[in-house]
Design brief:
Order of helices and strands: HHHHH
Number of helices: 5
Oligomer: single chain
Strand content: under 5%
Low-confidence stretches: none
CATH superfamily: HPT domain
Number of domains: 1
Radius of gyration: 15 Å
Length: 134
């Protein structure tokens, strides 16, 4: 496990920016769910935020945050490409993943020891159901 130094400015910036990005992702997902999307703007913005979280976690070697953000990013990319429909199952899985990412960021020192299996499985199930048109 990576040693986390709370005096590390890079880590502090990551934590602050990630909190803001997670709020933006959540807000965007709720807009997508309600159908108040302005063309591709919302999904593209949400995708970029998820990508930035993943990239920052990679830089800091925060494996679970990176993995879950990557899975979320993949789902968002499928929506962007029109390969996955926005439905309740997809939005719920994404929102649950955002909540889990908040938990991981809030406990960054032990984030790699917190299980993300349920959330990655939820995202994978949402993709399967979304592809099947369920």
């Amino acid at each position: 496990m990576t040693e986390i130094n709370h005096g590390d400015q890079v880590l502090e910036v990551f934590l602050e920016e990630t909190a803001e990005r997670l709020d933006a992702v959540e807000s965007g997902l709720l807009r997508l769910e309600s159908g108040s999307d302005d063309g591709d703007g919302v999904i593209n913005s949400v995708f970029r935020d998820a990508h930035s979280i993943k990239a920052g976690a990679n830089l800091l070697k925060l494996a679970n945050i990176e993995t879950l953000a990557h899975k979320l990013e993949n789902v968002l990319e499928m929506i962007r490409q029109g390969r996955l429909l926005v439905n309740e199952t997809v939005i719920t899985a994404c929102l649950e993943s955002v909540d889990k990412l908040r938990e991981l960021v809030g406990n960054v020192e032990r984030s790699d020891s917190i299980s993300i299996r349920l959330h990655t499985a939820m995202l994978e199930m949402a993709v399967r159901k979304g592809r099947d048109g369920a």
